[in-house]
Amino acid sequence: MPGLIEDYALLGNCRSAALVGRDGSLDWLCLPRFDSPAVFAALLGNEENGRWRLAPSEPLVQVSREYLDGTLILHTTFTTASGRARLIDCMPLAEHNSVLRIVEGLEGEVPFEMDLVMRFDYGNSVPWVEKAEPLVLSAVVGPDRLILRSGATTQALDHHTGSRFTVKAGQRLAFSLTHQASHLPLPVAFDSEQAVQRTLEQWQQFSSRCPDVGPWTALVKRSLLTLKAMTYAPTGGIVAAVTTSLPERLGGERNWDYRYCWLRDATMTLLAFMNLGYFEEAQAWREWLLRSVAGNPEQMQIMYGLAGERRLPEYEVAWLAGYEGAQPVRIGNAAALQHQLDIYGEVADAMSQAIRGGLPRHPRSAAIARLIMPYLENTWQQPDEGIWEVRGGQQHFTHSKVMAWVAFDRAAGLSDTTEEGQARAEHYRQVAAQIHRQVCEQGFDRQLGCFVQAYGSKEMDASLLQIALTGFLPADDPRFLATLARIEQRLLRNGLLLRYDSDSGCDGLTPGEGTFLVCSFWLADVYVLLGREEEARTLFERLAALCNDVGLLAEQYDPLGRRMLGNFPQAFSHIGIINTALNLHRAQCPVRDRAQCG
């Protein structure tokens, strides 16, 4: 059985990622890309769906783990009655797509066992395994091959590869698993110690540029590393999470595939990178964006594949039982075909902030904008599925209209200084004013005295916090203050925010889910805007305390069951950590010093 979501740590090489539990079991790994079929899928089933466990074979007295500072190299220390040993896990930052695991003896002698269950196609295909060299195994299914280089002798039993060995103090045994196309010759072995050292240096070189964020620097740095690990280096695309179908409700149907690049999530990640001074990553993302959305503006999607792929068909995998029985397990995401107006505002805001942050204008961005803005002008009055990608039918979501306003407001500021450009900017401002009037008239419920989730609705939605965060209205506007008070009244659960009340049936799914973590970060950001810094700090510190022992957050949290829910780790949640920490840090700085506070 898989562990708790919060018991996993992330390994990554900016191409793919793995999740490894406190028990030394690597239960999720897709190769060669984030969105490739999993070769270890025990996370969504059981050990027969693929896993790689390395752990002591005798009872454990204690387990502790940590990342080496500024890296994604994980150290798990096992203490038993006979000694102490360390498991070093990483995915080397190199051309070869590998997972490297080193068992190191620290004290005494510790007996270990390995159980390697290699499966392909999300646990469905059992490979043909044969010995290629002494201590080298080759596992092949169709076009794919895994190569195990083992630091100890192995035995085959019932389609498992096992090993038993003892590690003494000062001894290090290396195990690596590498993916390649099956038609290629066996690759030359790489030096495991050198690979760990190079990977350590590369991660630390990246993370050392993280600015000081006061008492939250370590937490921000860990979130920065997590977001970097979720970036697909060959193209600059950024995935929303590295998993699929981890449930938003245990045992429920709210299970989605997040291993793709949402424009919304990726633009927010871009802004987090820029806020921390990482403009190279921001520039790579902008290049990805301009390639992905190029073409007919009517065909612009809300999400794409890692290289900008547009076809992401959704289907169900019947042979996986689902995480703790949550069905169905979904591959692909039909939300790619949805109409979501807010993405235009997210992209325009990101482009605007990128230029203000110092990125040079891209020669293609203005041309694309001249095609997209007329399209948005013709479509902003249409209903959509909204930021939460509901499957209960389109509505006129207030947040979507606010973000359409953002698109025209920011586009006006991006227009060039030519006569034609200024005329275009004036037109954008007129459209923005039209949208603003409509939202204030139809998105505001006079009986309730506040903004509501959708035109004609009585429901609340945490996305309405963006009314202040985007500058649509000042944070101290009485209409927004009333909206904030009602959000706090209706959506707070044990001090954390739901994104909306799923019992209302607005999303077309079975009611019930956890609190949506990024929404609570937005609430803290609003408190900062209002000068309620003590409340903001208290809420942020509560959110930070939800991180697991290695600083990772899922998408949602159940405050009653005290369980993480949803895909993991989640970009949205780590963006929240970075942005709120920066907002709090800046708020604490004297005005004269704020430029130095980021």
TrEMBL record:
Where the record annotates domain Trehalase-like N-terminal, the positions are 5-130
Q: Which UniProt keywords apply?
A: Hydrolase
Gene3D superfamilies given for it? 1.50.10.10
Q: Which domain of life does the UniProt lineage start with?
A: Bacteria
The answer to whether UniProt assigns keyword Hydrolase to this entry is yes
Which BP terms from GO are recorded?
carbohydrate metabolic process
Task: Supply the InterPro entries for this chain.
Answer: 6-hairpin_glycosidase_sf, 6hp_glycosidase-like_sf, GH15-like, Trehalase-like_N
Q: Which Pfam families match?
A: Glyco_hydro_15, TREH_N
Enumerate the spans annotated as GH15-like domain: 219-581
The Swiss-Prot or TrEMBL record annotates one GO molecular function as: hydrolase activity, hydrolyzing O-glycosyl compounds
Keyword tRNA processing on this protein? no
Designated name of the protein = Glycosyl hydrolase
